[in-house]
Structure formats: structure tokens, C-alpha cells
Amino acid sequence: MADTFVLKRNDTWVPLRLVLEEALVDNPDPDNDAHWRGMDLSDVQVAHVWMRSSGAQVRTSPVILLDPDEPDPYDDEATDPVGRGHVAYLWQSPEQNPSGRADTAVAGTYKAEVELIYMDGRKTTVPRSGYFTVLINEDQGEVA
To answer: Can you give the three-state secondary structure of the chain, one letter per residue?
Structure first.
């Protein structure tokens, strides 16, 4: 999973794309790719990203579970299947969000995780240990 995703305040264009992974061995080395594989998401009913900073908490609209047998639809140059565990989140603008604010309205460093809810009601959170980071930098203001 990517450690840090960076964008500017109120940006919604570039989707958050992640690979959710599961360990293949006990006590896996986080830097050893042979210890990890993409998760099987075929039984996931819905997934959300939770983000928290000192100034805000965000629970996103549902995450898109990418088809492992198809290319990444958010990468114009992709031709190979993405494989297991790939998800994407399209940031919501104020018009799309029930709160009336963009998901990215508050600048800051967010600890983030993905909550998966399976069809039988079970839940799991990825990563299971620690977080990934979403860094929302200040912008220079809105264009009138």
C-alpha cells in the first residue's frame, strides 16, 4: 500500500488509488514483497476510507473495488489487469457531498485506513497495523 498520497486543498480530480494487501507469512517484513499479496475483495459489499487529522475527521463515500481482471480505469496508459486488492476513491466535491464540503476541504496531514464490510456483515480494517497518510496541502485560494 502506498505510504503517502499528496494533493492540495479542495482538489478532487486525481483519485486515491490503493492496493490493499494481506500477509502471506507470520511476522511479515513490510519491505519484502514476497511476504504480501493483494487482498481478495470478491466478498466485500462496501468499503470506505476513514481519515483523521487534528482538525477534522472524514468518512468517505464508498470506495470503488477495481475488477482484478481489467486494467485500471483511472490510468489511461494501463493495459494489464490490475490484480487483486486494488481500490479507488473519487474525491467528492461540495456539490456531491452531503456535508456540502469537499472531502479535501481541510488542509492537514491525515492518518487514513480503509474499512471493508463483507456481505455477511464482517468488517476488517486495512492496514491492520498503522495507517497510510493523506497529505492535503494548503492552496493559494479559490479562483473567482
So the answer is: CCCEEEEECCCCCCCEEEECEEECCCCCCCCCHHHEEECCCCCEEEEEEEEECCCCEEECCCCEECCCCCCCCCCCCCCCCCCCCEEEECCCCCCCCCCCCCCCCCCEEEEEEEEEEECCCCEEEECCCCCEEEEEECCCCCCC
**Mean pLDDT, the chain, as a whole number?**
87
Q: Work out the number of other CB atoms within 10 angstroms of the CB of residue 85.
A: 21
The pTM assigned to this predicted structure is 0.81
Architecture of domain 4-137 in this structure: Sandwich (2.60)
Helices then strands, counting H and E runs in the chain, come out as 0, 11
- In the chain, where are the structural domains located? 4-137
